Amino acid sequence: MITIASKAGFCFGVNRAVQMALDSENACTLGELIHNKDVTDELIAKGIGRIEDISQADGRTVIIRSHGVGAGVYRALEKNNIAYKDGTCPFVRRIQDIAAKCAENGVQVVIVGDRDHPEVQGIAGHGKDVVIVPDTDALKEYLETAGTADIAVMPQTTYNVSVWQECRQIAKKYNNVTVYDTICRATSERQSEAEELAKQCDVMIVIGGHHSSNTNKLADICRKYCETYHIENVDESRLIMPQGHFHSDTKVGITAGASTPAHIIKEVANHMSEQIFNEENFNFEEALDASFKRIYTGNRVKGTVIAINNNDIAVDLGTKQSGYVSLEELTDDPTLTTADVVKIGDEIDLIVIKINDAEGTVSLSKKKVDAMKGFDDIVKAKETGEVLEGPVTSLVKGGAIILYKGVRVFIPQSQASVRRDAKIEDIVKTNQRFVVIEVNEQRNRAVGSIRKVLSEEREAAKEKFWESVQVGDVFKGAVKSITSYGAFIDLGGIDGMVHISELSWDRIKHPSEVVKIGDELEVYIKDLDREKGRISLGYKKDEDNPWAQFAAQYSVGDVVTGKVVSITPFGAFVRIMPGIDGLVHISQLADKKVNDVKEVVAVGDEVTAKITGADIDKKRISLSMRAAGDDTDAEDIDESADEE
After folding, report:
1. What is the 3-state secondary structure (H, E, C) of 535-557?
2. What is the pLDDT of residues 466-512, one digit of tens each?
3. Residues in CB range of 150: below 8 A, 6 or more apart
4. Strand, coil or helix: what is 85?
5. Dihedrals phi, psi of 270, to nearest 5 degrees
6. Helix, strand, coil proportions of the chain in percent (round to 5)?
7. Residue 514: helix, strand or coil by DSSP?
């Protein structure tokens, strides 16, 4: 059995360069256009010659090879008014641009690749004092001695993927090193597919030029798993037949480098089929079709994630084309990255949104598939009343958007909260539960309500609360709002009020002196009105009662020191301890008659006085400054004060 790799043969970059040459008249290629002798011989036969220096152009249009050239070559072509066409592979052009930008910014460029390869030489021609290392050991040795200057490390586009991953891990250990993943995606996919095919076959045939970098790497990868032969064309396949272990039960896999034309793959496949399986009419097209499926715009396909980048992911569709999903087509959630959505090896459902035959790429969308599936769920949720959940991604005119399984659900501002004073901005970038209240299937639109969920949850919480609550029960809750007469506490779906008189043992003018919105308080049920649904809460603790503390610490006859906190016509109030003030009657201010309290004391004065009376129940304390310094009987003083 013969299996042909779906990624075998021309990549779009090579195909572009070859087609450019074939469409040209009076032209020549600067060096070997691609690394394939059969192709270059065909070009020569059609009058497309090859030169090694632009001075040999002789009036012909110069075609720059797919491997690219250094910046100096472009300058020389323009300086000498030599017409040229640029066949540089777009992936190679990208790494050239990176090298040039790094050079402008003073960043040292390090290329991991073959220093003798024309692609590497061309890239180096766009940088400045570029360093070229062949493998992991050389890269590690260079970075260990390079110092702290900024360094950019990037691989040759056809470099071995697995070896590059090792290099990447080494480079990431250095804070001054920026890593660029510049291996051509087609190369990466071709190598991955060749590896998987080699694992399943007895023999691998790798077709391509002997000095083709990407073909040699394919052969190296396949040799790890089975008997492998690297050949250029059908003539060489005839030479290997006597050497190999070929028989009717042999599983043969065929892959080819990016510069190998389809007709050569076909010739090799036909010859091997005739020799091994005695099949004279091996159908190359059918074998190739068996290796991949055909796709079209709007087609729903499955793809396996093979690479994850910052702005897109690459997927294997089992086709000749390379599949890509941009971050915008991966998810609608702006908070997510590509790595948050998928991981390498995931098989995902996709829709084809664009096919670029010229570049051999397919643009795909995951979010469109997700939206199709998600909208089905939304329609069902509308019928069943199921509560759904999703992130609020943005604000729009009149409301907000919740993203649910790829579907944008509109939440009107009136349906965003149960509180009239709530700010809709507060729910952005939060997860919210909602129900679907309206669906337009023709326009794929849905309207949801957060408020309805919150209202139903509050009603359920109220019912549960009233079933079991008793006076004296203790709760912890947050302060939701404050009025002049008290603070409202959220007890978990139902509110209770702490009256201002219950907030503090001290005299306060406004609840905000004690609490603020958001504070969590431990309160207890002081009273319940089940008919009206009112809950009175207590917050003051008995152990914090200053009168209880006073009774425990002081007795009538004790001498105390305190500050004058207020003055009246009949006496002065002295603060004995927080929350406890005693009255020094005007008759007890001094040993002489006092006509005006202010003649003896002022607010803020610290005074010494004797406790002459204490009524804890009525919260009254009598003090005497004139008795503080003698042994006058407290009761006598108290009586004389009353007589006056």
Report:
1. EEEECCCHHHCHHHHHHHHCCCC
2. 878 888 888 888 998 899 999 998 887 788 899 988 888 777 889 99
3. 105, 106, 107, 108, 176, 178
4. strand
5. -65, -45
6. 35, 30, 35
7. coil
Angle at 191 between CA 189 and CA 196, to 5 degrees: 95
Give the least confident one: 1-5, 175-179, 587-591.
Answer: 1-5
Q: What pTM value is reported for the model?
A: 0.45
φ/ψ of residue 255, rounded to 5: -135, 170
Say if residues 400 and 424 touch (Cβ distance below 8 Å): yes
In terms of average pLDDT, the best of 43-47, 304-308, 384-388 is: 384-388
Minimal CA–CA distance to 482: which of 457, 443, 455, 508?
A: 508
Structure tokens at 569: 């016509």
119 included as an active-site residue: yes
Q: In this structure, what token pair is assigned to residue 220?
A: 């190296």
Residues composing the chain: 644
Q: Which two tokens stand for residue 204?
A: 């691998």
Q: Are 528 and 462 in contact (CB under 8 A)?
A: no
Instruction: Please state the φ and ψ torsions of residue 98, each to the nearest 5 degrees.
Output: -65, -45
Going by C-alpha positions, the residue among 480, 459, 483, 472 that lies closest to residue 533 is: 459
* Dihedral in degrees, nearest 10, Cα atoms 521, 522, 528, 532: 20
| Complete domains list, the chain, with CATH | 11-86 (3.40.50.11270), 90-183 (3.40.1010.20), 300-365 (2.40.50.140), 370-454 (2.40.50.140), 469-540 (2.40.50.140), 552-643 (2.40.50.140)
Asked if 186 and 7 touch (Cβ cutoff 8 Å), the reply is: yes
CA dist 469 and 496 (Å) reads 12
Between the alpha carbon of residue 208 and those of residues 17, 35, 68, 215, 230, the distances in Å are 17, 8, 20, 6, 7
Catalytic residue, candidates 119, 193, 227, 232? 119
DSSP H or E segment with residue 382: helix 367-384
Among the listed ranges 231-235, 306-310, 564-568, 628-632, which one has the minimum average pLDDT value?
Answer: 628-632
Distance (Å, whole) CA 114 – CA 158: 10
Q: Which three-class secondary structure state does DSSP give residue 624?
A: strand
DSSP summary character for residue 242:
T
Q: List, in sequence order, every residue forming a beta bridge with 623; answer none if it has no partner.
A: 584, 611
At 67, the amino acid letter reads H
pLDDT average, residue stretch 141-162? 90
Query: Collapsing DSSP states into helix, strand and coil, what is residue 497?
Result: strand
Query: Is the Cβ–Cβ distance between 34 and 24 less than 8 Å?
Result: no
Q: Strands 61-64 and 27-30: what pairing?
A: parallel
Tokens of 51: 């030169």
Model confidence pLDDT, tens digit, residues 559-596? 999 999 999 999 999 999 888 899 999 999 998 898 99
The answer to whether 287 touches 1, Cβ cutoff 8 Å, is no
Compute the CA torsion angle 513, 518, 524, 529 (nearest 10 deg): 100
By CB atoms closer than 10 A (0-12, 13-18, 19+), residue 572 is buried
- To which residue do tokens 């991604």 refer? 393
Q: Which of 350, 355, 343, 346 is nearest to 369 (CA)?
A: 350
In terms of C-beta density within 10 A (0-12 exposed, 13-18 middle, 19 or more buried), how is residue 343 classed?
A: exposed
Tell me if 191 sits within 8 A of 206, measured CB to CB: no
- 281 CA to centre of own chain: 54
Q: Is the CB of residue 332 less than 8 Å from the CB of residue 367?
A: yes
DSSP 400-442: EEEEETTEEEEEEGGGS-S-TT--GGGGTTSEEEEEEEEEETT
Cα–Cα distance measured from residue 512 to residue 519, given in angstroms and rounded to the nearest whole number: 11
